[in-house]
Amino acid sequence: MTARVSPADRIRAEIDALFADPGLDLAEAVEQVARLGARLILQTALEAEVTEFLGRDRYDRGDRTRAGSRNGHRPVTVKTTAGPVELSRPKLRGTDEKFASRLLGKHVARSNALESLAISGWVRGLSDRDIEAALAEALGPDAALSKSTVSRVCATLKNQYAAWTARRLDDVELEYLYVDASHFRYHHAAKAEPVLCAYGITTTGQPVFLGLDAASAESTDAVLGFLHDLTSRGLRPPLLTISDGGPGLTAAIDQAYPSSLRQRCLVHRLGNLLAKVAAADADQVRIEYWRIFDDIHAAPGQAAVNEAELRAASFASRWRTRYPRMVDALLDGLGHLTAHLRFPRDHWRRIRHTNLIERTFGESRRRVKVIGRLPGEHTCLALVWAVLDRASRGWRGVDMNPANVRQLQQLRADLHHPAAGIEHTIDLPEPVTPAA
């Protein structure tokens, strides 16, 4: 890292390095990003104050209407109940008047208020008015920022998000596409509204964060519009889509990608089944459910699907008398629960659920809940995008060895030739009614 790199850029590099660590737990990483995000906002604000005071950016030698120049930084530690936060306070020389930061007021270094600022400054801080209110509450009226400085702090993230949503996707060659939705309340007591998210795994096995957008409802039209936006920007159809079983979501996916196979998230399906089971039997049902899909010995493809179906028939015969609705729910659309078994064995556990997005969404919801409200849709999307964009750099892909690549290429050829292609629905053997 050279001396010409600004302190704010150093913090950004810390955030990137954080998610580049493959051994770091995602939940812990997101917590650290929250603290680094607060540091980044404060540091960016400090540097913006100096820019405003001098009337020019770093290394800009064109405008010298105000005397003075930057003269490095000195470290300052702000103590909080969550621990110390290290900032680099700018120094100036040759100025006509003394520079005084409005952000770091007289007693900030001894304040515990930055813990609340760490959340409200990063989440609520995406609104200009809320940043001013949060800083005034945490640091006192003397630390209020000017509107121009607040705008500079917020503009970078907003611009990055806007550019990301408009970027072309022609060079993204997908094998797997995950589509999910999570619900956020923008205001206290308001109805939670869905945020749609898509990410994928490419032909090289690398994860890629693809799309994020708000929707008024998790309806077919809303999801279809979201997927069509990805297609209009050049995204090609995947071999397999993975989602939960929401009717609007699945209908839209089937319309948008009619030649792709669809995997229903096994974790979501299990939750649906357990809702139809007495608590006393829930653990046993859960164990036997996973036995349907785990440790399949047959080769990937139709043989593996057949083995899972035989196991499902055995499960059905055991539980049908006690829980007929639960058994019917399992057998209904079983082909979408076993679709992952047609793909390379190495990929099975990675492509049979949407837990990766769910986990990251959970961190976003938890941090939003602390605030209790969001200023609006744009703030919510920018927050979720910021978390997912950073987190996606640490997401795990899949192995694309030569055998796996050949199998995926054959699957793609089969999907584009329906006459010789893959069976999407397979009849199960009739379940055996247990003896009385």
Any descriptors?
single chain, 436 residues, alpha/beta, Nucleotidyltransferase, domain 5, 3 domains, two-stranded antiparallel ribbon, 48% helix
Explain how this protein is built:
Helix content is 48%, strand content 14%. It is an alpha/beta fold and 436 residues long. It has three domains: 158 residues, no CATH class; 119 residues, Nucleotidyltransferase, domain 5; 121 residues, no CATH class. A five-stranded mixed β-sheet has the order 5-4-3-6-7, with helices on both faces. A two-stranded antiparallel sheet has the order 1-2. α7 links the parallel β6 and β7. α3 runs antiparallel to α4, α10 runs antiparallel to α11 and α14 crosses α15. The longest helix has 29 residues. The relative contact order is 0.11.
* Annotation field: number of helices: 16
Using only C-alpha atoms, the radius of gyration works out to 26 Å
Give the H and E element order: HHEEHHHEEEHEHEHHHHHHHHH
> How far is it from the N-terminal to the C-terminal residue, by CA?
75 Å
Q: Give the oligomer, counting copies of the same chain as homo and different chains as hetero.
A: single chain
Q: Which term fits the overall shape?
A: elongated
Major sheet: order of its strands?
5-4-3-6-7
Structural domains: how many: 3
Tell me the helix content.
40-55%
Number of strands: 7
Q: Structural class, please?
A: alpha/beta
Low-confidence stretches: 106-127, 419-436
Strand content: 5-15%
Mean pLDDT: 76
Tell me about the largest β-sheet. Answer: 5 strands, mixed
